[in-house]
Design goal:
- The protein is α+β, with helices and mostly antiparallel strands and 314 residues long.
- The protein folds into two domains: 3-137, 60s Ribosomal Protein L30, Chain: A; 149-313, Phosphoribosyl-aminoimidazole Synthetase, Chain A, domain 2, CATH 3.90.650.
- 34% of the residues lie in helices and 25% in strands.
- It contains eleven helices and 13 strands.
- The protein has helices spanning 3-8, 53-70, 91-107, 158-166, 172-182, 187-195, 208-214, 233-238, 244-252, 264-271, 288-294, and strands at residues 18-20, 29-34, 37-46, 74-84, 112-119, 124-133, 149-152, 200-203, 219-223, 257-258, 279-283, 299-305, 310-313.
- It has a seven-stranded mixed sheet with strand order 8-11-7-12-9-13-10, with helices on both faces.
- A hairpin with a 2-residue loop joins strand 2 and strand 3.
- Helix 9 packs across helix 10.
- The longest helix has 18 residues, at 53-70.
- The radius of gyration is 19 Å and the shape is globular.
- It starts with a helix and ends with a strand.
- The structure holds cobalt (II) ion (CO) (3 copies).
- One cobalt (II) ion (CO) is lined by residues 26-27, 70-71, 139-141, 201-202.
């Protein structure tokens, strides 16, 4: 059983103020506090995925904010979560992690208002972020309509990069690209999708592109050749640098995706577990051009279909 499923095995929620809770695989919880106001709450932390402590902090911040942006909400403030081996590592490293995170949150206009730290064998860092949204304007992972265009706002491959870094085998240019991609805020994408009247959205993280697409609960046809990857990631795929999470994602999709004979490394690329990935957004066709104009980096990778099947075109 996935650990997340254990966490979600709670008694069913009956409180009408909980607009989005655990169990739908959505990005953040949403709780109504007034007819026209709801709070959005999410928490995310992880072990270091890059060696540069400042970049690690920035990526953790962008990743934690991302779940708020994916719901079309505005982040308000953050609490930091820290695990750190104070007897093994210089606390100067932690200062750099914290500073990197705070700078990224400041870029988003989000103050860090507190936090909690524990002594831990392995560093862990992240945030609990609280945001705000109008209850009628929440964008969840449900609601995509047949004919909607599926857009992805960041290139894939961070799972492969993280593994290559751990093994000391990642080319420096790719480390730099991945840091830039992972520390980029999904704020602009969130504003653009709200403007375009997106029907559904999520950020692409641990379940990979197709795992998160499956959570939309609709059929879709993905054009594998349209899916963007960071430059150099295919070389890592060809030497099998996939993390175990990507393999688990791929195995979990067995029988649920029609791969149309796509080679296995391409299937694994589409299943690669991401950190601080981009938004996957379902945009009504009439708004596709204006969405593209507002967010030139967004790439159309497929279309929502009327059946429940997930299909990948080679
Ligand atoms: Co998410
Ligand atoms: Co999350
Ligand atoms: Co969402």
């Amino acid at each position: 059983m996935e650990l997340g499923q254990v966490l979600e095995a709670l008694p069913p929620l009956t409180d009408p103020r909980v607009l989005v809770g655990a169990g739908t695989g959505d990005d953040a919880a949403v709780y109504r506090i007034a007819p026209d106001r709801a709070l959005v709450a999410t928490v995310d932390f992880f072990t270091p995925i890059v060696d540069d402590p400042t970049a690690y902090g920035a990526i953790a911040a962008a990743n934690a904010l991302s779940d708020v942006y994916a719901m079309g909400a505005t982040p308000l403030f953050a609490l930091s979560i820290v695990g750190f081996p104070r007897d093994k590592l210089d606390t100067g490293l932690l200062a750099k992690i914290v500073a990197g995170g705070a700078a990224k949150l400041a870029e988003a206009g989000v103050p860090v208002v507190g936090g909690h730290s524990v002594d831990d064998n392995e560093p862990k860092f992240g945030y609990a972020v609280t945001g705000e949204v109008h209850p009628d304007r929440i964008i969840t992972n449900q609601g995509a309509q047949p004919g909607d265009l599926l857009f992805l706002t960041k290139p894939l491959g961070s799972g492969l990069v993280a593994t290559a870094i751990k093994r000391g085998l990642c080319p420096e240019h790719l480390v730099e690209t991945a840091i830039a991609v992972m520390s980029e805020l999904n704020q602009a994408g969130s504003l653009a999708m709200l403007e375009a009247g997106a029907h559904a959205a999520t950020d692409v993280t641990g379940f990979g592109l197709l795992g998160h697409l499956r959570n939309f609960g609709v059929g879709a046809e993905i054009d594998s050749r349209a899916v963007p990857y960071m430059f150099g990631v295919r070389e890592l795929a060809s030497v099998d640098m996939f993390p175990s999470g990507s393999r688990r994602n791929h195995a979990a999709l067995a029988g649920e995706v029609d791969w149309s004979g796509l080679p296995e490394d391409e299937q694994l690329l589409l299943s690669d577990a991401q950190t601080s990935g981009g938004l996957l957004v379902a945009i009504p066709p009439a708004a596709a051009d204006s969405f593209r104009a507002a967010l030139p980096k967004a790439v159309a990778i497929g279309v929502v279909t009327a059946d429940r099947r997930l299909r990948v075109r080679p």
